[in-house]
Amino acid sequence: MPAAQRTPIRVCVAGVTGWTGRPVADAVERADDLELVAGVARSDPESYSSVAEALDAVAADVLVDYTHATAVKGNVLTAVEHGVNVVVGSSGLSADDYDEIDAAAREREVGVVAAGNFSLTAAMLLRAAAAAARHLGAWEVIDFASAGKADAPSGTARELAERLDEVRPPEVGVPVADVVGPVGARGATVAGTQVHSVRLPSFVVSTEVVFAAEGERLTIRHDAGETPAPYVAGTLLAIRAVVGRVGLTRGLDRLLD
């Protein structure tokens, strides 16, 4: 007698017509264990205009958000209020936002998986940087993105700084408050790390962390290409992993063990 088939995970994609949202939705439709039940896009008449409208109309197990920094928090909290698990691919959320989301998810007993970058190689960046920070005490982060990217730093850079903060604070030669000249020249302090955001044409998203010790340096860098292909596999991994979790999980690398 054949084994009973598992019920597919029902997925709603917010930002379904977007650069990453469309390929993710296509991949969900191709997967035997996943089912695309709804898409959200304000400009698409064939999609729902809001997450609330979509989740009121269809039963979904997971919301995937690839929208915009100005919309993502509201979308995530709306899904959590509906008792729907969430995979967050949009950047723009602060540490305080994530604390609020974690508390709401625990109250509703649903899971949220968020990553600044769902590329598997970006996950390796986080792991390698955390390992280096255990042995090298000084570092700074450089965040490169396209000229039109409104949020700074990128989600990848922010997540990297927060992951490094879990290891220890970096050593600083001259405290930022004591800088002679424009303080902004030293970048922004994110989770204790100085982060320098560069916004120029031809970049997609590149994240670089420079570690330094007496007489030597170590640079670890991740460069994203010009297609969304690297993010699809990681997003599908997160969709499958978030069901059954409770509360917030930060970082794709947390799902790789």
Explain this structure:
The chain is an alpha/beta fold. The protein is built from seven helices and eleven strands. The strands form two sheets. A six-stranded parallel sheet has the order 2-1-3-4-5-11, with helices on both faces. Strand 7 and strand 8 form a beta hairpin. The longest helix is centred in the middle third of the chain and has 14 residues. The two termini are 33 Å apart. The mean pLDDT is 95.
The overall strand count is 11
Beta-strand content estimate:
15-25%
DSSP summary: helix tally: 7
Low-confidence stretches: none
Principal-axis shape = elongated
Helix/sheet category: alpha/beta
Could you tell me the radius of gyration in angstroms?
Answer: 19 Å
Strand order of the largest sheet: 2-1-3-4-5-11
User: Average pLDDT value?
Assistant: 95
Measure the end-to-end span.
33 Å
Order of helices and strands: EHEHEHEHEHEHEEEEHE
Largest sheet: 6 strands, parallel
Portion in helices: 25-40%
Q: How do the strands and helices of this protein lay out in sequence?
A:
Layout: E1 9-14, H1 21-30, E2 34-40, H2 51-57, E3 62-65, H3 72-81, E4 85-88, H4 95-108, E5 111-114, H5 120-133, E6 138-145, H6 155-167, E7 188-190, E8 193-199, E9 205-213, E10 216-223, H7 229-242, E11 247-250
Helix pairs in contact: 1-7, 3-4, 5-6
